[in-house]
Amino acid sequence: MALPEILLIIGIGLLAGVLSGLVGIGGGIVLVPALVYFLKYSQHQAQGTSLGVLMLPVVFLGFYQYYKYGQANGNPIDLKIVGILAIGFILGGFLGGKIATKIDGELMKKLFAILLLYTAVKLLQWDQALIRWVKSLVS
């Protein structure tokens, strides 16, 4: 592997790690598109690689910072909730992976894009703005 490609991969990982620690997003929001567009991975390769990164304990360091912050500020992270969510996450990851391998790569790309778009619209509350706008036209 050539040095420029190694540096690109490290840069993608660094960006995904910083954003993951900063706003709590899964690396997939950054990693999957970056792997598809910069490294020309298939959608399945990119999603599998993103999941592979999550297997490593790299997320622990970001979690640890939030844990320390919560302890110090009286808003601790409930480790029981983390454990219970992890059970569902493990089962969901297994089932999602089985389903994803049966879906065409182009359809996977579209489903991924729709999920990102939907998330952005909800987080920015554009859906509520659109509803208000439509109501103003009707009244």
Short structural summary:
This protein is mainly alpha-helical and 139 residues long.
Give the overall form.
globular
How far apart the termini lie comes to 63 Å
**How many helices in DSSP terms?**
7
Report the count of strand segments: 0
Please summarize the sheet with the most strands: none
Which secondary-structure class do the elements indicate? Answer: mainly alpha
Question: N-to-C SSE series?
Answer: HHHHHHH
Helical content stands at over 70%
Strand content: under 5%
How confident overall, as mean pLDDT?
87
Low-confidence stretches: none
Our Rg estimate from Cα atoms comes to 18 Å
Structural features, described:
This protein is mainly α. Among the domains are: 1-56, no CATH class; 105-139. The chain has seven helices and no strands. The protein has helices spanning 3-23, 28-38, 43-55, 58-73, 79-100, 105-123, 126-138. Helix 1 (3-23) packs antiparallel against helix 2 (28-38), helix 1 (3-23) packs parallel to helix 4 (58-73) and helix 2 (28-38) packs across helix 3 (43-55). It is globular.
